[in-house]
Amino acid sequence: MQPINASRKSILNKLRSQPLPSNPLPEVIHGNWLRFKSPIEQLGNVLRSVGATCESLTDLESVRAKLQSYPEFSDAKRVLSQIPEIPGNVTLENVERPHDLEDVDFLIVRGEMAVAENGAVWVTDKDLKHRVAYFINQHLIMVVRKADVLHNMHEAYARVKFSGPGFGCFISGPSKTADIEQSLVIGAHGCRTMQLYIVD
Amino acid sequence: MALATLPVLKSQDHPTLANVFAADEDRAHWHDGALWFVRQKRDRQANSVPEWEQLRELASQIKEHAIANVAEYLEKFESNASALGAVVHWAADAKEHNEIVLKILRENHVQRIAKSKSMLTEECHLNPYLEKNGIEVVDTDLGEWIVQLRQESPSHIVLPAIHIKRQEVGETFHEHIGTPEGNSDPEFLAHAARHHLRQKFISAEVGITGVNFAIAETGGFVVCTNEGNADLGASLPNIHIACMGIEKIIPRIEDLSVFTRLLARSATGQPITAYTSHFHGPRPGGQMHIIIVDNARSDIRSSPDFHRSLHCIRCGACMNTCPVYRRSGGHSYSNAVPGPIGSILAPALEPEKHYSLPYACTLCGSCTDVCPVKIDIHHQLLTWRRELAGKKIIPYSKRLAMKFTSVLLRNSWMYKLAGAIGRTGLRWSPRWIVYNPLNVWGKGRDLPEPPRESFRAQFAKHKSEQHRVEGNHTSSSNSSSSNGKAH
Predict the structure, then answer these.
(1) pLDDT at residue A4 in the model
(2) Parent domain of B219
(3) Which of B299, B331, B354 corresponds to the end of one domain?
(4) Residue ranges of the alpha helices (H) in B135-280?
């Protein structure tokens, strides 16, 4: 460990030996930021523009019924659901290794909030044993309460807190790549489709 | 002056490599158009945010504060990250960074790595180092994987394979993963890559990621991707190694409210990346290693002229807009970070190797206009030229030409004479004399048609004409006012 400590000391000393003029940190949470007449409409528009879908429904039962009407969903072999009202058939507590989620078709989770300006939905691993579940599934279904639809990222970061080890992610649409000639391809390494449902 | 002390003109300077790229005219035009398309997408996104300029200003202030107090924030980050269970390492240079990575792998007896995009590891040449030591590294970002299979390096920090055509990707995939010959459909190829790389993710023992932002206040860090590769790589294997330069530090988690609004909009014209992942400590039972790397960043910070270049958040907007980058390709810069910002950073690292980069610039200032953290990029490039000329690093031919020009521009009669010779000479000389091999301006473009008269002569003529007109005008207005009076 000796050489590592030596570099630590020399880097910090070098940085301290050259004082630079410092300015105060600006306020970034409160401000006259972008707001929308209808944040839910804006959210839907942005999500559709990034290849996702977004729909407002009255309750979880309607979400369940809606999903059941899709053959891909009703025929899916493995559905992992974190929402008791929309049951799946994979019990996460029984899954030993994250790798064993490789063949999960659908993940159904609640998002803590959704941001209208960019379609970002905030999820954490607080109640999720394997956080890879967010990324290894083929189809991602998220449910956010109407009251948790925010206007912009400033409102969102006012609510993001980490008080211990943990993982959080803003997810906006299915995974994608444009690395071959700037042609947009939906479904890179993460989910291939994403659906967001807003419920009352 | 002894000839031996003169720097030898390097064959791998920017103009030489740019010539190689530009020789394929169709490809150069296609490349230019592809990047301009991204620039236009960026404009649409920037224009959709009314407070865009305010955000840029805030980002600039946060970065200025963070770099000024970087030692304190790095220590705070270290202690908070350690409290979360991460192991923090410090590397003075690229060599030490690579050795730390290898040591972690050896201590854990692992050798299969799924790596996501990190320009720092490109800068440190981590892949060749690990491969030499018998480690399997797979770059999992599609663009990076394509260049890895082709044994090339990324030509852009956000779009690593922007210089490669779909037919070439098709050939590469046919050769390496057996996709049908002749199939170059991007969707088909991307899905073939997804399928193939899934197995690499599943068998990986270590995930290596870069860091977009390291949060001093919480000890966590943020990684932004569209493909989800960083998240699979960091969430399947037990060991996560994150590599960051010292300049990635931000003070507070709420500062991300500014940066997440600017980054993807500036980079690819998206409202936000598909995944903006916040990592805080290892997973239960797993390991998280964070390597903090200096590699000459502290030298750049010590420079009053260039320390603001450390504010860069690596969005690549300056590349997409740069008329030189778009027409010369990323490889012509011979540096992990190419384009305008790379042309500031690279000479700081190796001035002898990268002396030509500050000249790969028309000083148009477009990079400065689009930079989301308001770095005065083109001003710094101009400053570099002065510095390099002072250090006598640029080639003798260029220095001699500049000396000659300087004398010419300071001497009125010489300037007049040179103008007269130019105007007459350019008009009457045959084409082969004007476009001789010494005329570098005439390479690939025609000189403008010389004016008949010098600016001086035109100006004098204009002035005397104006006098006449003004004289007439004064008398006519007098007469009209006298008319008015009479009325």
Answers:
(1) 53
(2) 49-299
(3) B299
(4) 142-149, 166-177, 186-203, 229-235, 256-267
Residue of B nearest to A176 (CA): B227
Assess A135–B contact: CB distance below 8 Å, yes or no: yes
> Across B98-180, where does the E strand assignment appear?
112-115, 136-139
What pLDDT score does B424 carry? 87
Q: Assign residue B283 the CATH number of its domain.
A: 3.40.50.10420
CA neighbor of B385 nearest in space, from B354, B421, B423: B354
In-domain check, residue B41: no
Number of domains in chain B: 2
Cβ within 8 Å, pair A20-B141: no
Q: Which of A23, A43, A179 to mutate to test the interface with B (most CBs of B within 10 A)?
A: A179
Q: Residue B25 falls within a domain, yes or no?
A: no
Q: Which domains are delineated in chain A?
A: 36-199 (3.40.50.10420)
Q: Compute the nearest-CA separation of B175 from chain A (Å).
A: 17
CA of residue A107 relative to chain centroid, distance: 12
Cα separations (Å) of B237 from B282, B299, B399? 11, 36, 55
Mean pLDDT, chain B cut into blocks of 10 residues (487 residues total): 40 87 94 97 97 98 98 98 97 97 97 95 96 96 96 96 96 96 96 95 97 98 97 96 98 98 98 98 96 96 95 98 97 95 93 93 97 98 90 80 88 89 85 81 79 88 84 55 42
